[in-house]
Amino acid sequence: MPGKRVLGIEGTAWNFSAAVFDDDLVCLHSSPYSPPSGGIHPREAAQHHAAVASDVVSKALADANGKIDAVAFSIGPGLGPSLRTAATTARTLALKYDVPLIGVNHCVAHVEIGRWYTKFEDPIVLYASGANTQVLGFLNGRYRIFGETLDIGLGNALDKFARSHNLPHPGGPLIEQLAKNGSYIPLPYTVKGMDLAFSGLMSAAKDATTRGARMEDVCHS
What we know:
Order of helices and strands: EEEHEHEHEEEHHEEHH
Number of helices: 7
Number of strands: 10
Largest sheet: 5 strands, mixed
Distance between the termini: 43 Å
Mean pLDDT: 91
Low-confidence stretches: none
Helix content: 40-55%
Strand content: 25-35%
Structural class: alpha+beta
CATH class of the largest domain: Alpha Beta
């Protein structure tokens, strides 16, 4: 919506966020849900979102001086309970301010944010987020899938590996930090044409640490 100020509500999984955007980013406020152990529990994540929504949105609206022309929200894919909480918040705000309500595909939003940030006009995209790992291109008004994971997404593989070693959620940033002090060791991975598979890589990584490989080296590899 060129020239319009949009309030965006994101709550697809473990993080609840509100941002205001016009021709550029005006503000962004977030509150992540951190499970005490293990992975994301959908009901607990939704309860977290409901508890923090008012505070997060109020901060965003304050930065925008209360002026918005539309409300956008993530319609999925994502965790059902979290999505419903975000959708309810967005609908309430759209009614309160009497502005249009716009549903946004979670996956497309990831890609479009990357396009906006890099200023690329027609990129080939590697989209890797949570359960999604895809190679995408834009053709005839929509994104086309050139290749994708055949089993689990790369983000989920990292989180599962982290949980198996008692690292807290989210596992990716911690694995990245460990990797900085590691060295490469061979680990198998699967590429079939333009498709990928990560379950074998995750199993091999777990086996490597069981056999005594340094955690830093496995994370690096």
